[in-house]
Amino acid sequence: MDYRQAHENEFLQLLSESTLQQIFEDIGPLKEFVGTNKIHLRRMCSIRQKKHYENADFMEKLRKKYSRLDLRLLFNGEGKIVCTSENCQDIISSLLDRCLLSAFSNNVYDVPNTTRVNKPMPRPKEI
User: Fold this and answer.
1) pLDDT score at 44
2) What pLDDT is attached to residue 53?
3) Residue 50 exposed, middle or buried by CB count within 10 Å (0-12, 13-18, 19+)
4) CB burial of residue 99 (10 Å; 0-12, 13-18, 19+)
5) What is the distance between the alpha carbons of residues 127 and 119, in angstroms, rounded to a whole number?
6) DSSP letter at 99?
7) CA 34 to CA 14: how far, in whole Å?
8) pLDDT digits over 20-70, tens only?
9) DSSP 8-state class, residue 110
10) Paired residues of 100 in beta bridges
């Protein structure tokens, strides 16, 4: 089986997960946006592997902080994500946890590499 078909199958499995369905008002626009696009399919597979949508704390922070990052997310009265063709890219970036707020410029970046950079480093010796 080729990679695209495997990713399509995994995407369909993701769409059938009740925990994912519960965070959306209607998942149809996201399904249509992803379609058979191999990059979007790969990203959706990563979302399934990371499973941030199952983390209640992550989802609560997303609801509270999305506007600070200028994300085009919409939430209904129940706190579910309202998916539109215009905000699918921001939904994907959010669920991948790829939104970076620069402490220096206050710009927001969609970063493909989510390797943590804030690991403890030894402090330089005083001279």
Assistant:
1) 97
2) 97
3) middle
4) buried
5) 24
6) E
7) 12
8) 999 999 999 999 999 999 999 999 999 999 999 999 999 999 999 999 888
9) E
10) 109
Q: Counting Cβ atoms within 10 Å, is residue 53 exposed (0-12), middle (13-18) or buried (19+)?
A: buried
Over the stretch 64-111, which tens digit does the pLDDT of each residue have? 999 988 899 999 999 999 999 999 999 999 999 988 888 888 888 877
> What residues pair up with 81 in beta bridges, in sequence order?
24, 75
Helices 38-50 and 88-95 cross at an angle (nearest 10°) of 40
Q: Name the phi and psi angles at 118, rounded to 5.
A: -100, 40
The position carrying tokens 């965070």 is: 23
CA–CA distances in Å: residue 29 to residues 61, 81, 92, 107: 23, 11, 12, 28
Instruction: Give the contacts of 106 (CB within 8 A, at least 6 positions apart).
Output: none
Q: pLDDT grade, residue 114 (50/70/90)?
A: low
The label of the residue with tokens 């943590």 reads 116
Q: Which two tokens stand for residue 21?
A: 């369905």
Beta strand extents in the chain (DSSP E only): 99-101, 108-110
